[in-house]
């Protein structure tokens, strides 16, 4: 039977083998006490397995406050755990609940971070992944053998529809390929979404008629699901080529629902990423995060910038970029 593998960085004041076994039990067939229904046959079929443990550092204080036990040292380790695909089939939210659920609250851990995951090749029969990716994005705006050059509308919020459309025209005249809404811009009092889309797309269509180049504009459609779909449909009607979603705000199923339409390049904005990743021993690392978003169908995904204004190092950014370019699911290179 096919299995899903997840690698964690953990920290615990207890025996590492025991703590890893608690994780495997809590996230599959077990719980904090023995229950009559957890038979040997059930565990054989559905219990998670600890596949590998690599001991790392020992530290004097816990990484997460509140876990101090007098006289204890805290062992850090890499742990690989696997689950039978029978536990969740191809249900992405249940898979995430398993890989990133209550395990963060287990008292045996003073640090826990999902580092990476491996999925069986059969997932590619159930998830299309990004429809456009790098290749389709570049083709959409007529970019050949060079990087796309993009920018963001600033100020983030406050400009009128007319001012925004004028700025877009100036950017197009300067030779830009890709423009996006800021994540803070949805529909402001002086910039209703529908009016902004129509005004900007008129500028883009006029330029396309004159030059043959169709600049890509990613309109921020983040909203309730039905309203996101309405906004998506408006962009299609206005002959747009892209929509932006704040993927942590609308959630995985909201993101996938929009991606499944398959008519627009989907730009995934990861605002809130620091909440998920900034602590070195809590949350999720980007190699695992980007695979989940690729499964959902996101075509473009933020990876921060070199010498950026945020806390993330250049090495971390480069690692994130490389992880997006790695083949996934039996050699499928979604971001080609």
UniProtKB/TrEMBL annotation:
Its cofactor is Mg(2+). This is RuBisCO large subunit C-terminal-like domain-containing protein. Residues 8-122 form the Ribulose bisphosphate carboxylase large subunit ferrodoxin-like N-terminal domain. PANTHER family: RIBULOSE BISPHOSPHATE CARBOXYLASE (PTHR42704), RIBULOSE BISPHOSPHATE CARBOXYLASE LARGE CHAIN (PTHR42704:SF17). InterPro entries: RuBisCO, RuBisCo_large_chain_AS, RuBisCO_lsu_C, RuBisCO_lsu_C_sf, RuBisCO_lsu_fd_N, RuBisCO_lsu_N_sf. SUPFAM superfamilies: RuBisCo, C-terminal domain, RuBisCO, large subunit, small (N-terminal) domain. Belongs to the RuBisCO large chain family.
């Amino acid at each position: 039977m096919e299995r899903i593998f997840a690698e964690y960085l953990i920290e615990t004041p207890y025996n590492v083998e025991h703590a890893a076994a608690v994780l495997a039990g809590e996230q599959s067939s077990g719980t904090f006490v023995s229950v009559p229904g957890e038979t040997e046959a059930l565990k054989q079929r559905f219990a998670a397995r600890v596949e590998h443990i690599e001991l790392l550092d020992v530290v004097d204080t816990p990484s997460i406050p509140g876990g101090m036990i007098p006289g204890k040292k805290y062992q850090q380790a890499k742990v690989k755990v696997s689950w039978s695909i029978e536990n969740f089939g191809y249900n992405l939210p249940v898979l995430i609940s398993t890989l990133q659920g209550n395990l963060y609250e287990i008292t045996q851990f003073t640090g826990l971070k999902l580092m990476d995951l491996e999925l069986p090749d059969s997932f590619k029969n159930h998830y299309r992944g990004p429809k456009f990716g790098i290749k389709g994005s570049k083709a959409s705006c007529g970019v050949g053998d060079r990087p796309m050059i993009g920018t963001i509308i600033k100020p983030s919020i406050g400009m009128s529809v007319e001012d925004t459309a004028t700025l877009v025209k100036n950017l197009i005249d300067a030779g830009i390929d890709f423009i996006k809404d800021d994540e803070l811009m949805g529909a402001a009092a002086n910039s209703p979404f529908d009016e902004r889309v129509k005004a900007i797309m008129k500028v883009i269509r006029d330029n396309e008629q004159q030059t043959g180049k169709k600049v890509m504009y990613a309109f921020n459609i983040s909203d309730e699901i039905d309203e996101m779909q309405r906004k998506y449909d408006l962009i299609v009607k206005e002959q747009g080529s892209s929509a932006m979603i704040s993927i942590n705000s609308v959630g995985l199923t909201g993101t996938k629902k929009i991606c499944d339409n398959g008519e627009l390049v989907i730009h995934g904005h990861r605002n809130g990423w620091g909440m998920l990743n900034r602590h070195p021993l809590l949350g999720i690392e980007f190699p695992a995060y980007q695979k989940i978003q690729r499964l959902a169908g996101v075509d473009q995904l933020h990876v921060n910038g070199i010498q950026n204004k945020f806390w993330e190092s250049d090495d971390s950014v480069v690692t994130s970029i490389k992880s997006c370019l790695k083949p996934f699911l039996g050699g499928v290179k979604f971001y080609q």
